[in-house]
Amino acid sequence: MALTARIRTRDGWALSHAVVTVTDMTGTQMLRAEADDEGAVRDTTELVPGPYTVIITAVGYAPSASTAIVTASGRAEVGTVTLARQGGAELPPPGPWTVDPAHSTVGAVARHLGISSVRGRFTDFTASVEIAPDDVTKSRVETVIRAASIDTGNDMRDTHLRSSDFLDVETYPKITYLSTGLTAAGPDRWTVHGTLTMRGVARPVDLDLAYLGTGSDPWGGTRAAFRATAELHREDFAMDYNQVVQAGIAAIGTTLKVELDVQAVQGDALPHP
User: Distance (Å, rounded) from C-alpha 111 to C-alpha 247?
Assistant: First the structure.
């Protein structure tokens, strides 16, 4: 007999830690096999022709059960089986991921004069992600941003933002974010709970996160894409500066919208310079 199966995630990646268990119609276990690095299962255990139950499990994923028929030729082809994340929400495969700053953006948007928006981004940052294998809600995100790398496209404005009126980069050169957990908010959507430390002030900040999927890159790696947003209030981080102009309108809004577009590479280091 030859039982074959291919185990995949919803976006087509191999589940190398999947386990296939086959039982007869009385519930007696007849074989147990583990998937290889390609998510494939091939077992040569001899079974008599007839129906069997095939149960496929993987840590962090909802199990799958189906019926397979062993034919007179002794073959049972289960085909490709797709497992969904436990609870119906998706994230990349478990393990470490490293954010690629060259293909990621850490930005913020502020209102200007109450009628338009000013956009800025930080150009120097590092970040890592750890997708927990057993309980995905215990996954972790850690980010360090160089505050002086703020760039709004205007040198005079950027110099002011680096001053003690705002980021005070001489005293507080780093902005950090450390997650404390995840909560599923729907298929492919999560709330990341964490602590943002800026200007020496630590505040809880939640990120609304969308997982956009995974794919291969030209350097032989696997990449995952995310988009996240959050709202911050400047006064929560001791940035009280403002200038009131005509009609009592603040020159700079007190609320900032944070916008993150992130590519992360599987592994604990980037595979290219």
Answer: 16
Q: Which helix (H) or strand (E) holds 162?
A: helix 155-162
Long-range contacts of 34-42 (CB under 8 A, 24+ apart): 35/5, 35/7, 38/6, 38/14, 39/6, 39/7, 39/8, 39/13, 39/14, 39/15, 40/4, 40/5, 40/6, 40/7, 40/14, 41/3, 41/4, 41/5, 41/6, 41/7, 41/78, 42/2, 42/3, 42/4
* Tokens, residue 37: 């690095």
- For the stretch 258-268, pLDDT in tens is 999 999 999 98
**Cα-based distances in Å from 54 to 28, 35, 157:** 12, 14, 63
The torsion angles phi and psi of 87, rounded to 5 degrees, stand at: 85, 0
Share above pLDDT 90 across residues of the chain, in percent, rounded to a whole number: 43
Query: What domains does the chain contain, in order, with CATH numbers?
Result: 2-84 (2.60.40.10), 95-266 (2.40.128.110)
Residue 25 and residue 10 in contact, taking contact as beta carbons nearer than 8 Å: no
**HSE value, Cβ hemisphere, 13 Å, CA-based, for 204:** 6
Spatial distance between the Cα atoms of 125 and 107, rounded to a whole number of angstroms = 11
**pLDDT 10s digits, 149-198:** 999 898 998 998 899 988 999 999 999 999 999 998 877 789 999 999 99
SS3 content of the chain, % helix, strand, coil (to 5): 10, 55, 35
- Nearest-angstrom CA–CA distance, 83 and 71: 26
Closest C-alpha among 107, 127, 132 to residue 118: 107
